[in-house]
């Protein structure tokens, strides 16, 4: 038996990845904390419960690894899983990482290095998700309710990428073990985009007027905490906007085209696909 274990298999990227793999005739096992009984290939997986690691890996030869979310230090949970995956004989392991290293998160670089040291280890360093503009993300909720984007990033740009393009890129690496792969890919959209530019595109595409309110990093952290994010993670995420404002995150790559044979979606296309999200 062989196949792909998809951790975070019911999430934004995982759902599309599972569908892509199954459409290609690849056995995909959906791992999540609350597996659905309707899917015979769904299995319980919880980063905080190492007893779920073995059954999830059993019979699989490939893994899509989504580290614990909303954590500035996921390595202590991921490290035991990596050891278990190596003992299980996993031949390709693709981790969804981030192009942006959170402040005060020193283990992120070490975690990527440990993944790359695994047989067939690959890290996809994804830029900001376009799906952040969709509910239930706080950014999207504010646009929906108030027609407003609050940001501390000024006019700084980020290479926003559609999660569907991340999933298809991961599928290209996981569907066929014969595909040559580097150990590192920067995954971005086709161009950098600022929050004011995003507001202009949403307004032009949907007719919904969206304005930008420029706030401080501290105000952004408070807003993230109010939305339910853990305090430490909220502070780190707000601090990212300083890097965007200073131009440190304005990176664009051709990796999606290289892996999938087609260019990544532009934000205007993403907005067209989801226009109903911002209209009342």
From TrEMBL:
One protein family per Pfam: NAD_binding_10
InterPro entries listed in its UniProt record: Ergot_Alk_Oxidoreductase, NAD(P)-bd_dom, NAD(P)-bd_dom_sf
SUPFAM superfamilies named in the record: NAD(P)-binding Rossmann-fold domains
Positions of the NAD(P)-binding domain: 8-175
Entry protein name: Uncharacterized conserved protein YbjT, contains NAD(P)-binding and DUF2867 domains
């Amino acid at each position: 038996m062989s196949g792909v274990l998809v951790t975070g298999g019911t999430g934004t990227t995982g759902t599309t990845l599972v569908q892509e793999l199954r459409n290609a005739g690849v056995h995909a096992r959906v791992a999540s904390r609350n597996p659905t009984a309707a899917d015979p290939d769904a299995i319980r997986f919880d980063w905080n419960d190492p007893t779920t690691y073995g059954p999830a890996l059993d019979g699989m030869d490939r893994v899509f690894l989504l580290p614990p979310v909303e954590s500035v230090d996921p390595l202590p949970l991921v490290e035991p899983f990596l050891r278990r995956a190596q003992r299980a004989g996993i031949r390709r392991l693709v981790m969804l990482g981030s192009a942006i290293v959170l402040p005060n998160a020193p283990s992120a670089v070490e975690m990527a290095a440990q993944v790359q040291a695994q047989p067939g280890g690959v890290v996809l360093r994804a830029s900001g998700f376009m799906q952040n503009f969709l509910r239930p993300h706080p950014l999207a909720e504010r646009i929906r309710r108030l027609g407003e984007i609050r940001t501390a990033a000024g006019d700084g740009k980020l290479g926003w990428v559609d999660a569907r393009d991340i999933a298809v890129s991961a599928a290209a690496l996981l569907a066929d073990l014969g595909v040559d792969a580097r150990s590192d890919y920067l995954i971005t959209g086709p161009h950098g985009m600022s929050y004011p530019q995003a507001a202009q595109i949403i307004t032009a595409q949907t007719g919904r007027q969206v304005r930008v309110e420029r706030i401080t990093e501290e105000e952004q952290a408070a807003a993230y905490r109010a939305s339910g994010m853990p305090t430490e993670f909220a502070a780190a995420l707000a601090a990212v906007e300083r890097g965007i404002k200073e131009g440190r995150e304005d990176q664009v790559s051709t990796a999606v085209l290289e892996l999938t044979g087609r260019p990544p979606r532009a934000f205007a296309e993403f907005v067209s696909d989801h226009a109903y999200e911002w209209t009342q």
